[in-house]
Amino acid sequence: MYSIAIDGPAGAGKSTIAKKIAKQMGFVYVDTGAMSRAMALFFIRQGIDGHDRETIASLCPSIRVSLSYDEEGRQQVFLNGENVTPYIRDEEVGQMASVTSAIPEVRAALLDLQRNMALTSDILMDGRDIGTHVLPDASLKIYLTASPSVRAKRRYDELCEKGVSCDLAQIEQDIIKRDEQDMGREIAPLRQAEDAVLLDSSDMTIEEVVEAVLEEFHKKY
Ligand code: DC
Q1: 62: CA distance to ligand 1 center in Å?
Q2: Would the CB of 127 count as within 6 Å of ligand 1?
Q3: What is the pLDDT of residues 93-150, one digit of tens each?
Q4: Is any ligand 1 atom within 6 A of the Cβ of residue 129?
Q5: Are the CB atoms for 77 and 85 separated by under 8 Å?
């Protein structure tokens, strides 16, 4: 089984790149951010403060996150049996996921599921700690980043295209805050694994990044 781990900060283009590569290579794409977001949605719905570690830890055993794939191979994420895929993309959910993912019980609740997926299929998994913690023996590790201003502008363009009104400066601030939270936490912080290939996509097109990842893979296999 092959596994490709792509880690990096919010908005670096991980999921766009990962989906394309997984499709080309016939690998299963696992978006671990969606799993963290499903957990976060549970806490938001319960009205829990993301910093209330004790309550969150005590609730983890009652939360079940699972994944399935639709006919087109798109990942669907389930929270206690409910398909919550349409409800997890808001910035509020992303921010909550960034805060609650710093809690060990939240990470532990997802770890086995993530690791087990790599045992049964060739996978491409993206997240924050895939190369460093979830799949330390991944066949290939990529650390994909881009400058905060480029990431903010991409997100801004994406929202404008969807007709959502937004503020570029606010988006950049949110991105910087998320970087600080994801890189600064004690457990499984976002960082480049020692054996990961660094790709800075600030001045690269999506196709160039896809090509670069495929090249790295074929160098090894
Ligand atoms: O990639 P994303 O924006 O969907 O992730 C949302 C948050 O979830 C991210 O800010 C931190 C957390 N996360 C994590 O801690 N570990 C992962 N493997 C994936 C996401």
Answers
A1: 21
A2: yes
A3: 999 999 999 999 999 999 999 999 999 999 999 999 999 999 999 999 999 999 999 9
A4: yes
A5: yes
